[in-house]
Design goal:
Blueprint lengths: L11 H24 L2 H22 L6 H8 L9 H22 L6 H11 L31 H15 L5 H15 L6 H15 L12 H12 L4 H33 L8 H37 L3 E7 L5 H8 L8 E9 L5 E10 L29 E9 L2 E3 L7 E7 L2 E7 L13 E4 L3 H17 L11
Antiparallel strand pairs: 1-2, 2-3, 3-4, 4-5, 4-6, 6-7, 7-8
Helix pairs in contact: 1-10, 2-3, 2-4, 4-5, 4-8, 5-8, 6-7, 7-8, 7-10, 9-10, 11-13
Protein name: Fic family protein
InterPro entries: Fido, Fido-like_dom_sf, Fido_containing
Pfam families: Fic
């Protein structure tokens, strides 16, 4: 029985995503090298450790909540939960901290460190022989793959490490990480704890390469398991995609913490010029604005997906796929308003594919500051935005959800005949940036954009009509083509 390296032939979109991730990580590493406070790094490491312990254990059936996991790792006792769940949390936390110490000490990833990690993860769990390879045959639940015989385990593990050392320079880190992670689950070297060890093994490799760790979330469990099954069948592309999606969450955590730290430093620097409570007052005001904005973005997404789904029910040849991301956090919201670096602002990707014509496109919804609006400066109320265009009443800080598209793997602008340009909020309701076609303009002039609060359903229906007509030549019956 020999492990066969699965296919990792990536689409141009995934390759573009990996390149973007690598550039972002390079920027983060540059900031770290320039000097980030130990307190900042320790804080981030603690946040990631709690998330890692919670999600990795939850994937394996542990019933602790994220909050309960945090309390246990802070030394509290949760009497309502089984002792085994508490032991698993503490043990995985110790193993993760040990992993950090190995990275700090530049220890290599070897068979010895693999066994030490398993020993720490499974420490004190009844009935488990921690730190040694299994001595019996096993079968993985809900999988057709039968792991190698225990008699051949050492040879398979040795082959994994030998191949890794020979080939790690030939693949992007996330692709190599996907192969190694799958290979370890394929070997299934332990009687229990294989998933947790394999995920830690993956992060050991990535941290060595200067990448941040990946937290595979419990909400991704089904897709994660399906990607491992696909890898068993010879294709690891879905696993690469899941890893890239999840590492972006870690990158966002880094960016949020760094930007908030910088915001705090700027506030302290201006301390003598502003009131002591200015910083928290401004944040509190924008916190309310953020909650309203976030809820309205969710309303738009729900209405848009509902309308598209109904269209799909009436046009059988049209396939619709969604890829959702969590809305940006409050700190990321402030970062955008202040023009601070933030790399992951995507909210929803929608792929449309016509089986009859083989035409396809992907809509990309992402967040960006409205650049004609005032630049938010929490730390210094006296600064003025140079982009106010000498307006007597500058537009308040605002974030819009913009729309772009991808076609044949490349990002493109939406057709200029499409009226809807962006989505935002006005007071407590949705607002839309819609091109005013009635205003005459010269060919070199940009179209006039009106901010309107039309009924969302009407705006969404018109937007979908235009997409289908312009990109798929699909026209509603009894309605003349007005494009």
């Amino acid at each position: 029985m020999i492990y066969k390296i699965p296919s990792t032939i990536l689409t141009s979109e995934i390759e573009e995503e990996l390149t973007h991730i690598e550039k972002t990580i390079d920027n983060l590493n540059t900031k770290r090298d320039e000097g980030l406070s130990k307190e900042l790094l320790d804080n981030l490491k603690r946040q990631l450790l709690i998330k890692q312990v919670y999600h990795s254990n939850a994937i394996e059936g542990n019933k602790l909540s994220l909050r309960e996991t945090e309390l246990i790792l802070n030394g509290m006792v949760i009497n309502e939960r089984p002792l085994k769940d508490e032991i698993e949390a503490k043990s995985l936390a110790r193993a993760t901290e040990y992993l950090y110490s190995l990275i700090d000490g530049r220890e290599p990833l070897t068979k010895r460190t693999l066994l030490e990690l398993h020993s720490l993860i499974m420490q004190n769990i009844p009935g488990i022989k921690a730190g040694i390879f299994r001595s019996h045959e096993v079968q993985i639940k809900n999988s057709q793959h039968i792991p190698p015989s225990f008699l051949d385990l050492e040879n398979h593990v040795d082959e994994l490490f030998q191949w890794m050392n020979r080939n790690s320079h030939k693949y992007p880190p996330l692709v190599m990480g996907a192969i190694l992670h799958h290979w370890m689950t394929w070997i299934h070297p332990f009687s229990d704890g294989n998933g947790r060890v394999s995920r830690m093994f993956l992060n050991f490799f990535l941290l060595q390469k200067g990448y941040p760790e990946i937290v595979i979330k419990i909400s991704d469990r089904d897709n994660y398991y399906n990607s491992l099954i696909a890898s068993d069948k010879g294709n690891a592309v879905k696993l690469v995609e899941i890893l890239s999606d999840n590492i972006k969450d870690t990158i966002s955590s880094y960016e949020e913490l760094i930007n908030e730290d910088q915001r705090q430093k700027e506030w302290l620097k201006q301390y003598s010029e502003i009131k002591e409570d200015h910083y928290e007052k401004v944040k509190s005001k924008h916190s309310y604005d953020y909650e309203v904005w976030k809820n309205q973005m969710a309303v738009f997404k729900t209405l848009f997906k509902k309308s598209l789904q109904e269209i799909g029910n009436h046009i059988p040849q049209l396939e619709i796929e969604y890829k959702d991301y969590e809305v940006i956090t409050f700190n990321q919201y402030l970062d955008i308003l202040e023009d601070r670096p933030i790399s992951n602002t995507g909210y929803m990707f929608v792929k449309l594919f016509d089986r009859n014509t083989q035409e396809a496109m992907t809509l990309v919804f992402y967040f960006q500051r409205l650049y004609v609006s005032k630049l938010l400066k929490i730390a210094d109320a006296k600064r003025r935005n140079p982009r106010n265009f000498r307006s007597k009443k500058p537009i308040p800080p605002a974030i819009k959800m913009n729309i772009s598209a991808r076609k044949n793997g490349s990002q493109i602008k939406l057709d200029e005949k499409i009226d809807l340009v962006n989505i935002g909020t006005y007071k407590d309701q949705l607002s839309f940036g819609i091109i005013n076609r009635s205003v005459k303009r010269q060919p070199w002039q940009k179209p006039k954009l009106d901010s309107r609060t039309d009924p969302p359903g009407s705006v969404i229906r018109d937007f979908i009509d235009q997409l289908l007509q312009l990109y798929f030549d699909i026209h509603p019956k009894n309605k003349k083509n007005t494009i």
